[in-house]
Design a protein that fits this description.
Shape: globular
CATH superfamily: MetI-like
Largest sheet: 2 strands, antiparallel
Number of strands: 4
Order of helices and strands: HEEHHHHHHHHHHHHEE
CATH topology: MetI-like fold
Radius of gyration: 23 Å
CATH class: Mainly Alpha
Distance between the termini: 37 Å
Helix content: over 70%
Number of domains: 1
Strand content: under 5%
Number of helices: 13
Length: 298
């Protein structure tokens, strides 16, 4: 009976198992092999050992792309969480209108990334963009967001906040799961709004915050679509490109523009290692900061 049930379970799992083997496991294994070769798609791969990995540490473009990506992620993730949490707190007080605003906040998430990249060029144009026009109305002379290397990444960070809708909904659900009794007890003890937020709200929604931090950190380290569309997709050759050269963009160029597939595979595995280390650090830190109903994270 047990063997029959196991066979039935494997039969139902087989579509997923086959899909995982063909579309995930095999590409991972093959990319690891390609990272040890010199492969240009046209000719057969030539085994070169760890030469590609050694070249990663001497390629200035890799260092530039990695530093751009880390800067973007370190700045973008905290702002993303803060804006998402602020909007979720507002929605929690919206009453019957919250359904309408939930839709409004989530709709930008449905915008294709390519469209967001084009929208970035229109909104942040240094001459007549809407963002600088708005700053001009309050007497602020806006910078050249799309050409000044010092402002390219901050502009992309601001533009990334366009898609906070999904995180807002996650945090809103977490806020609505906080027991009212905890707030009542805090008010009886004389806690004001800020103390309630720090001592009740934030600890109770910390698992959702932690999830958003981890997911958006991984997404930030893989940033590609919007920056590529805005600065590289149309053959843009302005000097601001290097400021927008994120790691995955350089990986894409090596793979599909220069046909250095082996080198690109080595870059992909380096990125995998960076993401794994960063996520592991976040998991360790979360043990002291994330509160679960049964206690802190283990």
């Amino acid at each position: 009976m047990t063997r029959r049930e196991n066979r039935a379970a494997l039969l139902f799992l087989s579509p997923w198992l086959i899909g995982f083997a063909v579309f995930t496991a095999w590409p991972l294994i093959y990319s690891a092999y390609l990272s040890l070769t010199d492969y240009d798609v046209i000719n057969d791969p030539t085994f070169v050992g760890f030469d590609n990995y050694a070249e990663l540490f001497s390629d200035p473009k890799v260092a530039l792309a990695l530093s751009n990506t880390l800067f973007f992620t370190v700045v973008q993730v905290p702002l993303y969480v803060i804006v998402s949490l602020a909007l979720a707190l507002l929605l929690a007080r919206a009453g019957r209108a919250s359904g309408f605003f939930r839709t409004v906040f989530f709709l930008p998430k449905m915008t294709p990334p390519v469209a967001v990249g084009i929208l970035f060029l229109l909104l942040f144009n240094g001459q007549n963009g809407l963002f600088n026009t708005a700053l001009g109305t309050v007497g602020i002379d806006g910078p050249s967001w799309t050409t000044d290397p010092a402002w390219v990444k901050p502009g992309l960070v601001i533009m990334s906040l366009w898609t906070v809708g999904a995180s807002v909904l996650i945090l809103l659900a977490a806020l609505r799961g906080v027991p009212d009794e905890l707030y009542e007890s805090a008010r009886i003890d004389g806690a004001g709004w800020w103390r309630q937020f720090l001592s009740v709200t934030l600890p109770m929604i910390s698992p959702a915050v932690f999830f958003i931090v981890v997911v958006n950190t991984i997404a930030g380290l893989q940033t590609f679509d919007e920056a590529y569309t805005a600065f590289f997709g149309a053959g843009n050759t302005t000097y601001g490109n290097d400021a927008a050269l994120f790691y995955v963009i350089y990986l894409f160029q090596q793979a599909f523009q220069f046909l250095n597939m082996g080198y690109a595979a080595a870059m992909a595995w380096l990125l995998f290692l960076v993401i794994m280390v960063v996520t592991a650090i976040q998991a360790v830190v979360s043990r002291r900061l994330v509160h679960y109903e049964g206690g802190t994270a283990r």
